[in-house]
Amino acid sequence: MARDPRYDILFEPVRIGPVTARNRFYQVPHCNGMGWTQPQALAELRGVKAEGGWAVVSTEEVEIHPTGDCEPFHEGRLWSDADVPALALMAEAVHAHNSLAAVEIMHHGASSANWSSREMPLAPSHRPIIYYAPVQARRMDKSDIADFRRWHREAALRAKKADFDVIYVYASHDLSLPMHFLQARKNDRIDEYGGNFENRVRLLREVLEDTREAVGDRCAVALRFAVDEMIGADGITSDGEGRDVVERLAELPDLWDVNVSTWSNDSATSRFQKEGYQEDFTRWVKSVTTKPVVGVGRYTSPDRMVSLVKSGVLDFIGAARPSIADPFLPKKIEEGRFDEIRECIGCNMCVSSDYTNTNLRCTQNPTMGEEWRRGWHPERIAPKGSDHTVLVVGAGPAGLEAALAAGRRGYEVHLAEAGTELGGRVSREARLPGLSEWGRVRDWRVTQLSVMPNVHIYRDSPLTAEDVLAFGAGHVAIATGAEWRRDGVGRDHGAPIPGFDDPRVFTPDDLMNGKRPEGPVVVFDDDHYYMGGVLAELCRSWGLEVTLVTPANIPSAWTVNTLEQGHIAKRLARQGIAVVTSATVTSFGTDSVEILDYLPGTTRRLKAGGIVTVTARLPREGLYEELAAAPEKLEEAGISTLRRIGDVYAPSTIQAATYWGHRFARELDAEVVAAEDLPRELPQAAPLRRHWA
Ligand code: ADP
Ligand code: SF4
């Protein structure tokens, strides 16, 4: 389809210093958990973004020196010339699609412990590093500052050698040396690099000048800057020194990439911030500089993008997460395929890959991070390998994705759902406080399926084993999901908790089905992701007195990995929800629960009219087991594949459900590569050396 002229403005080329971006779609730097350990996988991933129409595709943070070594996190590296070929691979992949490759070179300063290199971290003044670790950064003397400038310059030259087009100076997310020098609270130097604003901005200005002088003939120099740290007067603010920085350095970089600090604010989840929330902090930047400005806001709406450009807020639509959820977002806008845009749901499973140092993954985009290892492309999939029909039982995220991917392969697909509503857990969870955007997992898939003539959807169709056998499908996917257990068994309790057979014990499913406990309510969270905290909020919204009890030492402990834990703890406190950590529920009876406080090792009773137990789930596996128990009947019915996918296979995240649904469809009638045989990037660059006799 031809481009709708309303969106022409998004496809105008924009000059960035000596280079030109072919349109206004800009993938800003984002972490991925792979970094220097998987250069081929990363090159493939970034190349797919360029293919999808992002005119600028950036790396993640790329360390310039071992004194700013971020291990155990896997970021990029340009410590020496030996690192050039790995990054050159990515630049080449991006250039293959006519896009510009950008590299975010940086020094972590007092934000890395240097666990791997064992060098001492560097800072403007003597300070502990910003993470809780028994590590202090040492105050840099003049020769350290000269060294840092030289390392940055050399890294810029290496980046140019690797054929990058845009080279960053990084002062954002509270994560880099120039940022730390700017921050008055961290810089108590009395020389020309500390004290007044002019002195604190000096290093940033010098590094910009150095970079321009080193590579500016051919490469654009971008400045990524957090205009507001969102900590009030203690930090940089967009109406204070944040604005002063932009005014002072306005024309020095070729491009301003502006955001807010820290990462948990910049990449806030949809539970806490909606599309475009950074605009309040950044919309003035363009009035201060003539250079192009890129900003982020989890933008997925083409109309919003047009209005941002037309109203002079941004020149480039920056994206990290929307480009992960849909690497082909720009192309889909260009081709008028708006319904096909797979919108990010703002869950930050992608961020958790960085926190767990594993391949980037995404709830919405099951191919993300598997482009190289499995050869999965977000838009292309092999045609079907047989004329078998496919029956998918259950239309949660796993079943919907399986049906969609199999349908795209050309199979005749039948999707049967017991309920009237499609979406399974996603539909129910999207009705919980703050999670409405999660419904996009369902909406996008249902929209795609609705126009596929080869996919047939049956609602209100709870299938039995006889139904499945009678159906006559060659491939069957059982995607019947899981249910929350009510007996209290989970991580903390291997056996049921006494009293949990009481009708006043509620599971998350009960609450999502509309049941309400009497107060006061104790939410026992032994799940540690979002559900316990969200249900505490829900009960509180009903006016009940709520106490959340968790064996972890912080509420919603795993959400540290999705950057939400601080936000959740704050919200619980501000809603008046009591939190008891390092404790477990040991019994429930009459009008109270007994809890064991692990630290003193003592028990006490909390008044409770009801318990919400959030511990673990059990697969709804009856249908699968009945079918699997009778292979002769499967054969007789012509069923060649019977597989469990999603939560019925093993209860997990929504991200795992879409991944397994997708994988089921990819593997139909195809050679299945065992996990141990998948390509791996082994450290084989140098010949193996021996130091022993
Ligand atoms: P997942 O996350 O693995 O996709 P969900 O729990 O979200 O799992 O979805 C499972 C879906 O399967 C639910 O919508 C449920 O109604 C449906 N379902 C369960 N058993 C059957 C069955 N026997 N026939 C059809 N649908 C079923
Ligand atoms: Fe968006 Fe979630 Fe995918 Fe990240 S994992 S890109 S937040 S949908």
TrEMBL record:
Provide the protein name.
Dimethylamine/trimethylamine dehydrogenase
Which superkingdom is the protein from? Bacteria
The answer to whether the entry has keyword RNA-binding is: no
Signal peptide span per the entry?
none
**FAD/NAD(P)-binding domain ranges (all copies):** 389-624
Q: What class of enzyme is it?
A: oxidoreductase
> Which keywords does UniProt give here?
Flavoprotein, FMN, Iron, Iron-sulfur, Metal-binding, Oxidoreductase
Record organism: Aquamicrobium lusatiense
Q: Does the keyword ATP-binding apply?
A: no
